[in-house]
Amino acid sequence: MLLYLCALARNPDSAWLRHWSPRLGAASLSMFALHVPLYNLFMTVKQLVRGAPGQCLNQWSDCVATAAANV
After folding, report:
1. What is the DSSP string of the chain?
2. Would you state the pLDDT for residue 52?
3. Using CA atoms, how far apart are residues 26 and 39, in angstroms rounded to an integer?
4. Minimal CB count within 10 Å: which of 19, 21, 51, 53?
């Protein structure tokens, strides 16, 4: 239904919007492809920070174990 409604949309009157719409559309695939790896990286760092960040400097294995326990 959303695709059908988008197909019925008329061309915008704004020159600014006509200029940026194709660029944003072309960039959307790249943003979609990158959001999963970036989200996974963010969640990993978040777990490490929430676990025991002080241990990460001295004992990496304890830091990872504490982060895994806080999931």
Report:
1. -HHHHHHHPPPPS-HHHHHHHHHHHHHHHHHHHHHHHHHHHHHHHHHHHHH-HHHHHH-HHHHHHHHHHT-
2. 64
3. 21
4. 19
